[in-house]
Design goal:
By secondary structure, the protein is of the alpha/beta class. 41% of the residues lie in helices and 14% in strands. The protein is built from 27 helices and 17 strands.
Length: 627
């Protein structure tokens, strides 16, 4: 695989392993950081990826590999979308031009990719608890390697992170937690902890203490009294600032320090590495550092597609995205219904609820990276007569399944669960594909579950949620642009549980869900060339199924083919099979969807070709199906 950005600058090209990072003279480190930033900016302009987070951790990542020795020592990055620098420093620089490309490097840490990737992740709130588990395993084995968990301040509001914090001091005596404080996760962070860190940075005490702490550490680094000095610095922090919070949890606190001063970072990490107590190091970094478009708009460059290096501009989408249609439609519905509220978990721009927030700031709620809390919060609102719409990516809504079942469905609370990025999420890979939500949710009693075929139908389904559903409901819609159809200004509700026949035929019924209706139409055209006449049905509803329509289709056709942007196991096709089996219908069913597996990263087209989800591949399966 070749690329115009596959050549590397000289110093970075010399890094074949972390040992090479250790062997560099200290005065070469600023040049290495500069070369890494240039490589990130140039490469990701061709591949897309998480630019701003990685630009912010360049010096921190260099310092970590100067002090610690992977793979023996374990370095974990929370979410791990900021592990690109780590990959560059651990023998993968020559492959970096393949990042997020089919068959290339993953955009997240991946255990099977490198022995230096201690723990794979793609969701927030993983690094602290997983790292603590590694430390416990180390202690039981009587070993002495280091475990370092790098966690962004946005993830400090995540439930698993807070639960892990509570257990550090009772689990191990040696654990290093690094708080990467940049005031951003994807959007600007919210909540009391984020405000706390932000307020701390703006005080005169903070500036004075940071300066004094740096001076003391610099003077005494390597001396026999460094532990006593470190304790004094920590005690001063606990006395002067509210950071006794960490002391009460049993952690020795260091910082805040400049996360872009690689020499200072290395010095303090060497001190910390010799401590026999759980430690938290608080570093201040700038998301997008070194690239003006990314520092100006860190939200856009958190995860960005291809862009122009000169000014950071990106191409304009051919049509409105499903997310945009969702945000605009919900805002219009809220104009006429003051009971509507909008909730998200740290994703206002990704879900386009920023459109709603601008118009109705008091009716918009961002819970931070706390999906479970967001779902329960929505249930509380619904119990008091509000109409909450919770918008979260499908892959993150997985964390809410208990709340959807136990709190919303059991009590029949009409919370509206809106799952963005449902189906394949190309390039991001298995941690971000939304391929499992149907299987997880369709077993929940009384849930109304829908998927639109286009953006106009999305608007209608949102109106259906608002107007005629008095119990929990869910809607799934894909990433990216819609079909380019006009969205009604005043969308009308759909009849619940009713499919729509799009085309009548005599031989085979193509029963498609959501964005797979386009695949069904293209497949039907191919089959016409073989003399096969197809009926096309837009299923629209997963729960409840349009049983009457499906049974009629099974009676009239020799084969029913279901198509879904979801794994075939437990999905929409499985629901159709269950229905026909319960009615003792003998018509065969061919289920088309993604395999019962974790699908790798790659472009939409390449993955559809590999897994035979193209029109020609589907037509071939139908033609080869036994009569």
């Amino acid at each position: 695989m070749t690329s115009p950005c596959s050549s590397l600058p000289p110093l970075l090209a010399s890094i074949q392993s972390p040992q090479d990072v250790k062997n560099l003279p200290a005065d070469a480190l600023p040049q290495l950081a500069e070369e890494i930033r240039a490589t990130l900016i140039e490469t990701l302009s061709h591949t897309g990826g998480h630019l701003a987070p990685n630009l912010g951790v360049v010096e921190l990542s260099i310092a970590l590999h100067r002090v610690f020795s992977t793979p023996r020592d374990k370095i974990l990055y929370d979410v791990s979308h900021q592990s690109y620098v780590h990959k560059l420093l651990t023998g993968r620089a020559g492959e970096f031009h393949t990042i997020r490309q089919f068959g290339g490097l993953c955009g997240f840490m991946k255990r099977s990719e490198s022995e230096h990737d201690a723990y794979g992740a793609g969701h927030a709130g993983t690094a602290l608890s997983a790292g603590l588990g590694m430390a416990a395993a180390r202690d039981l084995a009587g070993e002495d390697y280091h475990v370092v968990s790098v966690v962004g301040d946005g993830s400090f509001g995540c439930g698993t992170t807070l639960e892990g914090l509570n257990n550090i001091s009772t689990t191990t005596r040696r654990f290093i937690l690094i708080l990467n404080d940049n005031d951003w996760s994807i959007d600007r962070n919210v909540g009391a902890l984020s405000q706390y860190f932000s307020n701390l940075q703006q005080t005169d005490t903070y500036e004075w203490l940071r300066s004094r702490a740096k001076t003391i550490i610099e003077r005494l680094a390597g001396s026999d009294t460094q532990k006593q000095v470190a304790r004094l610095v920590h005690a001063a922090h606990g006395f002067i600032t509210p950071l006794s919070f960490f002391q009460e949890l049993g952690l020795t606190y260091y910082g805040p320090i400049d996360g872009h001063d690689v020499r200072k970072l290395e010095k303090i990490l060497r001190i910390i590495a010799r401590q026999d107590t759980p430690v938290i190091l608080h570093v201040i970094t700038e998301k997008g550092r070194g690239y003006a478009p990314a520092t100006t708009n860190p939200c856009k460059f958190h995860g960005v597609g291809k862009y122009n290096v000169e000014d950071g501009s990106t191409g304009k989408a051919a049509a409105a995205t499903y997310s945009e249609v969702f945000g605009r439609t919900l805002t219009r519905l809220a104009e006429g219904d003051p009971a509507i509220t909008a909730i998200t978990a740290a994703m206002p721009s990704g879900t386009r609820l920023d459109i709603f927030r601008e118009r109705f700031p008091k009716r918009f709620f961002d819970t931070g990276i706390a999906e479970e809390h967001a779902a329960l919060f929505a249930c509380g609102q619904a119990s008091q007569g509000l109409k909450p719409y919770l918008a979260v990516y499908s892959t993150f809504m997985q964390r809410c399944v208990d709340m959807i079942m136990h709190d919303a469905a059991l009590q029949k609370l009409p919370v509206r669960f809106c799952m963005d990025r449902a189906g394949l999420s190309p390039d991001d890979g298995p941690t971000h594909h939304g391929l499992f939500d149907i299987a997880m949710l369709r077993c929940i009693p009384d849930l109304v579950f829908m998927q639109p075929a286009d953006e106009a139908e999305l608007a209608q389904m949102l109106a259906t949620m608002n107007g005629i559903i008095d119990r929990p409901s869910a809607i799934r819609y894909p990433r990216g642009c819609g079909e380019g159809v006009e969205v009604p200004a005043d969308p009308q509700p759909l009849p619940i549980g009713k499919a729509r026949v799009l085309e009548e035929g005599a031989d085979i019924c193509l029963l498609a869900l959501g964005n797979m209706n386009r695949l069904a139409a293209e497949t039907a055209e191919i089959l016409k060339g073989s003399g096969i006449s197809c009926t096309r049905v837009n299923a629209r509803f997963i729960c409840p199924l349009d049983e009457e329509c499906i049974l009629q289709m099974a009676e009239r056709h020799r084969l029913v083919v279901t198509l879904e942007d979801h794994v075939v196991t437990g999905g929409f096709g499985s629901a159709v099979l269950e229905l026909l089996n319960s009615r003792r219908t003998s018509t065969p069913v061919l289920c088309i969807g993604w395999p019962h597996a974790f699908v790798e990263h790659g472009s939409q087209q390449l993955l559809r070709e590999k897994y035979e989800l193209t029109p020609h591949a589907v037509a071939a399966k139908i033609l080869n199906h036994p009569r």
